[in-house]
Amino acid sequence: MPLVALTGGIASGKSTIARRLAEHGAVLVDADQVVRDVQLPGSPVLAAIATEFGDVMLRSDGSLDRAALGSRVFGDPAAVQRLNAIVHPAVRLESQRQFDEAFAADPDAVVVYDVPLLVEARLNDHWDLIVVAHAAADVRRRRLVDLRGLSEQDAAARIASQVSDQERLGLADVVIDTAGSLEDTLRQADELWAGLPRLLARE
Question: Record-annotated residues binding ATP (predicted)?
Fold first, then answer.
C-alpha cells in the first residue's frame, strides 16, 4: 500500500510526471482537484469562505469566484492563513477518503498524491516516498510567462509566494530534474516507476 507524495513549485512539470505515473498504473489523487471538490456550491467549505471573506467571493450561480478569492488573499499572509484554516482540514479528510478507497479496491495499489503544498500543509503526514519535481526558479518563471501568459512580475510573485526550492529539495527522497526536455522528464518518471520496489524496500 505505498503512498507517494509528488510535489514541486509552480510550473515545475509536476503534473507531467503525475500523468506519466498514472499511465504506468498509479492511482492519482490530485490535491488541486480535491480543493475544487470540497469548494463546490452547497459545501460547508464554500459557506465558510463566503462568511469569512464576503459573498462577493461567490458567482451568481453560487460557485466560487476563484479569481476574486485569489486577488483577495494573494500577498496577505493573514488572509491566506484564514483561508487555509478553512480549506486544509476538508482537503485532508477528502484526500484520505480517496486514499482509503484506492487501497480498499486494490491493496497493492501505488497511490500518488499530486500536492503542490506538501511543505506548507502535509509534511507531517506519513508518506512512503516523497518525489520532488525540480527546475530552477528562472526556468519556471520563463514557463509561466511563455506558456501561461503571465507577466514577468506576476510570475515572479507566484514563485516568491511558495516555499523555497531548498526547502522542497531538503525533504525529497527522489528528485526529478524537469529543466530539460519533456522526453528527459518522462524518462526519469519511467525510471522512478521501475525503481519503486527498490526505493520502497529500503525502509
Answer: 11-16
Domain co-membership, 102 together with 131: no
CA distance 166 to 137: 11
pLDDT tens sequence across 111-134: 999 998 888 888 788 899 999 999
* pTM score, whole prediction: 0.90
Longest dimension (CA), the chain: 53
The full 3-state SS of 125-171, as one line of letters, equals CCCCEEEEEECCHHHHHHHHHHHHCCCHHHHHHHHHCCCCHHHHHHC
Confirm if 34 and 202 have CB atoms less than 8 A apart: no
* Domain's final residue, options 80, 107, 134: 107
Do 21 and 74 fall into the same domain? no
> Which residue in this structure is represented by grid cell 506519466?
20
Stretch (H or E) spanning 3: strand 3-8
Between the alpha carbon of residue 95 and those of residues 46, 100, 124, 196, the distances in Å are: 17, 9, 15, 22
Q: Which residues contribute to the annotated binding site for ATP?
A: 11-16
145 residue type, one letter: V
In-domain check, residue 143 = yes
